[in-house]
Specification:
With 444 residues, the protein is an alpha/beta fold. It has two domains: 110 residues, Aspartate Aminotransferase, domain 1, CATH 3.90.1150.10; 260 residues, Aspartate Aminotransferase, domain 2 (3-Layer(aba) Sandwich). It is built from twelve helices and 15 strands. The chain has a seven-stranded mixed beta sheet, with helices on both faces. Helix 8 links the parallel strand 3 and strand 4. Helix 6 runs parallel beside helix 10. The longest helix has 39 residues.
């Protein structure tokens, strides 16, 4: 879409309608010390073709597939997307659909979200799922707030230090202005959360653990859930790789009260970090405390199947202080893509795809171990794992970048005690040859 600016005549007409003589008067209600003074220093204008070339040059500086062989996940994963998803999402009735405030003219959108809720509930083994949220980080923060609402007078929540670091940062942003305290649980030498730390914590409303966690290790959710429930707190599981539950036991089967996380893996391109899809599901007894909104199935006056916005206790619908969430919009388009992906791949396909991810990751793990590198943690993993490289690996990492290979994510900036450790990821998009080349290059 080309940018079509307003003419001077357009601007003058609009100012006249609102009763302002000029732009300065239009913004007179904003204090002067909050206003920018002087012109913004912008580069010279470009033609459409010069701008396209400029953007191409900027894109060329990014280390992304298919030009690069990327062995990095850390919350954003490269998966093949069935052509059916791309084709259907290109249809105008789907790509232009807006939020379904009027059910009588939004039946298609409402049904798509209803199917999304159904498929998410099945994948996670939960009783109810909402109509999606912004992303995995805000979904986790909302889950902790939900546990506080249910826990009433309880003032603390505990979060594993193996929850994605950026998710934890969002949680801190949400809760810092409140009277509630966030307690961080340490991790063990095997790469799992140390739940013994819960013993000394009273007044817990909820406990959040990620599985597979940020190190790629699979947590013992059953044991953690039992420990959490002993303290009368809500057990919250989160994830950044939902495909893992094509192979692993679902959170619901391990008695999770809330399951939430990022749904980008389900048919949504990485797109340089966004958009994402916030997945949120819970036990049915907590449905009225859930954030966001839910779509329900009903019958019309003639007995025909129909869909409605069933629960929507958001600040758009009721008083802000009574709202269960101030998240104002679901990720409708991304949720529809995830629905198409899950329907296209199917239950059998999800299991096979998850198995392929696990097997390929194990192949690379064994290859690196045989080449003399240490696998940092011995807990079982899905498609990510941590490798300890020798001192000075930074030079090797840069050399590999020059050869169009991204050898994982260095962890020192997130975990200072893990210097020279990298988090590597393998999905179905990486071939045996890609992995063999990586092993050969890091050895040399």
């Amino acid at each position: 879409m080309r940018y079509l600016p307003h003419t001077e005549e357009d601007i003058a007409a609009m100012l006249q309608v609102v009763g302002a003589k000029n732009f300065d008067e239009l913004f007179s209600t904003i204090p002067e010390d909050c206003r920018r003074k002087g012109d913004i220093k912008l580069p010279d204008p470009l033609t459409e073709w010069e701008l396209n070339e400029h953007m191409d040059n900027l894109a060329g500086d990014m280390a992304v597939s298919p030009e690069y062989k990327v062995f990095m996940g850390a919350g954003s994963y490269e998966h093949y997307i069935p052509s059916s998803v791309s084709y259907l999402m290109g249809r105008s009735e789907i790509s232009t659909a807006y939020t379904p405030y009027q059910p009588e003219i939004s039946q298609g959108t409402l049904q798509a979200i209803y199917e999304y809720q159904t498929l998410v509930s099945r994948l996670l083994g939960m009783e109810v799922a909402n109509a999606s949220m912004y992303d995995g980080a805000s979904a986790l923060a909302e889950a902790l707030l939900m546990s506080i609402r249910i826990g009433r007078k309880r003032k603390k929540v505990a979060v594993s230090s193996l929850v994605h670091p950026l998710y934890r940062r969002v949680v801190q942003t949400y809760l810092e202005p409140t009277p509630y305290e966030v307690v961080e649980l340490p991790y063990l030498e095997n790469g799992r959360t140390d739940i013994s730390a819960l013993d000394g914590i009273d007044d817990l409303a909820g406990v959040a653990v990620q599985s597979p966690n940020f190190f790629g290790c699979i947590e013992d959710l059953q044991a953690i859930g039992e420990k959490v429930h002993e303290q009368k707190a809500l057990f919250i599981t989160c994830f950044s790789e939902p495909l893992a539950y094509g192979l692993l036991k679902s959170p619901g089967s391990q008695d999770a009260d809330i399951a939430c996380g990022e749904g980008q893996s389900l048919g949504i391109p990485r797109s340089f970090g966004g958009p994402g899809l916030g997945i949120f599901a819970a036990k049915n007894k907590y449905v009225r405390s859930m954030p966001g909104r839910l779509i329900g199935q009903t019958k019309d006056m003639d007995g025909n199947r129909g869909f409605v916005l069933t629960l929507s206790t958001r600040e758009q619908h009721i008083r802000r202080e009574k709202a269960t969430s101030n998240i104002c919009s679901n990720e409708g388009l991304c949720a529809t893509m995830a629905t198409m992906y899950m329907a296209s791949v199917g239950g059998t396909g999800m299991r096979e795809l998850a198995g392929l991810n696990r097997d390929k990751a194990e192949y690379l793990k064994r290859g690196l171990k045989k080449a003399g590198f240490k696998i940092a943690f011995d807990a079982p993993t899905f498609n990510e794992f941590v490798v300890e490289f020798p001192e000075g690996f930074e030079k090797t990492y840069e050399r590999l970048l020059q050869k169009n290979i991204v050898a994982g994510l260095p962890l020192a900036s997130y975990y200072p005690d893990l210097k020279n450790h990298c988090l590597l990821c393998v999905t179905e998009t990486r071939s045996k040859n890609d992995m063999d080349v990586l092993i050969k290059e890091v050895k040399s």
